[in-house]
Please model this.
Amino acid sequence: MIQKIIFSCLCTMLFTSCLHPNYYENVDGDLTKIATWTIEDGQLGKATILNDQLEKQAVDSIEQIWSKIKAILPQKVVNTYVKEFVLLTDGPSETLAGVAPIDETNQSWDFAVDPQDLPQGDYKKEKDFVHTLIHEFGHIITLNNTQIEPSDLEYQTDENRYLTTEGLAKENSYINLFIKEFWYPNNRLIEWDKMDRVKNQDKKLRKLYSFYQKYETAFLTDYAAESPEEDLAESWYFFVVKDKPTTNFEKDKKILFFYQFKELVLLRKEIRSAIQ
Model:
């Protein structure tokens, strides 16, 4: 879940749950789940309306909302992993969208949006919306069951395999290779892990922002310093929408990281074609 205090880039636009199927029911007490739809091969199926007094217009136009999202994201991946669509809200100008694994296998995911924050008109021309979709899609392709396996571990114990909330990263997974290259050197992961364990959220966010300022040439946005997972998803977004960097900062190398994977280059091409 993105904290809404310090991180300026995406804090009012998206969240990533990475928790459990009932995550949306009570996050900080401010998210109201409106309705859910099952998804089969990218098509909306059975609906469960949880609050028929709220956002009726959004519920009625769900097909249009879902079709606009699908128009931007690669269908093969969406059809494989996204099995539930969720409408929820925390009011205007707050959460926009997010993803979450439906169970501990990471094989099935839901995709959630807040109808109060959806842009008007052509979604593809709304940079914040496109940024959010591509970022969240990045979580799906880097945290699904081909990349992460279930684990009962509670703490990081093996430097060869990164432990996420979803489970243990496979040795040659995107996130594991990314962290080995950019987070293990100079004990940066250890430095971040100490801050991540701070209980007081205000103090934690101040420490994370200081962490970003300390390594500003290493992060593409301040939100990327929130965690290795968010760093990877933000780097993925810039890999998709930007041309190859010509400078040699660490944040540029994070964009170049994705070019070694032919399948990701193809997804990049597909998304860029959809949003142009």
